[in-house]
């Protein structure tokens, strides 16, 4: 039977372009989370390595089994008796590309689930150079759920947020907590971040946990911040702002999931239908 409350520590980071400083942040965050009585630490996208210079990154990126950040997260989880969602870090993938790779680690330091970001951030914002994540990264092919002491959870990363069918599928298969670690750009964050996260929570009757990167990074990028936790009713219950890295402690009252889904049972009322145009009639 699932626990009634998840005591969560959410981290907002300004990740560096090498593993060392990010591992130091991770270890300190895990110790502080454990001291505060939290059950789980949730980290943002590219928590382990934030470097958009592909050649410089390539000198540091290794297979997931050899990755120093993932190893440090497993060690910290076991030492602190704490679950850790690593958010993501780049690892070696197929055909010379990277995978944007996240892990969920239990309190014994064992990896219970791995997820590779499915949807690549290939966009061309007005007035800016094209951003082509697929130039460097391969996309994952599996939607991932796993059971925890707090019920079933679903994993995703950043740009996945814009594909609601993924989250509906996770929720229909029992996920009540959806992790969406991110490194949103400032323009897209200002326009879309809050509304998309609230929509995913409302559509699925789920808690959305979205740790984010914030501020100016070593590689020159600037990220939006505003790490959020959203309730199954769509209420923002934690917003860490857009200025500084840090930690926030949040209690998720898990009975809110069943309450929201009981009141608006859209997950069970979906019907099939055909698309037609007047010419089809």
Notes on the structure:
This protein has 281 residues and is α+β, with helices and mostly antiparallel strands. It has a single domain (5-266), classed as Carbon-nitrogen hydrolase (Nitrilase/N-carbamoyl-D-aminoacid amidohydrolase). The protein is built from six helices and 17 strands. The chain has helices at 19-35, 54-58, 68-80, 164-172, 186-204, 255-263; strands at residues 5-12, 40-42, 83-85, 89-92, 98-105, 111-116, 122-123, 131-132, 144-148, 151-155, 175-179, 207-210, 214-216, 222-224, 228-230, 236-239, 246-253. It is globular, with a radius of gyration of 18 Å. The mean pLDDT is 95.
Short description:
26% of the residues lie in helices and 27% in strands. By secondary structure, the chain is of the alpha+beta class.
- Bulk shape: globular
| CATH fold-level name | Nitrilase/N-carbamoyl-D-aminoacid amidohydrolase
Classification by helices and strands: alpha+beta
What count of structural domains?
A: 1
- For the secondary structure, the number of strands is 17
Give the distance, in angstroms, between the N- and C-terminal Cα atoms.
52 Å
Number of helices: 6
Largest sheet descriptor: 7 strands, mixed
CATH architecture: 4-Layer Sandwich
- Percent of residues in helices comes to 25-40%
Rg is 18 Å
Q: Overall mean pLDDT score?
A: 95
Q: DSSP strand (E) fraction? A: 25-35%
CATH superfamily: Carbon-nitrogen hydrolase
The top level CATH class name: Alpha Beta
* Poorly predicted parts: none
What letter string, H or E per element, gives the SSE order? EHEHHEEEEEEEEHEHEEEEEEH
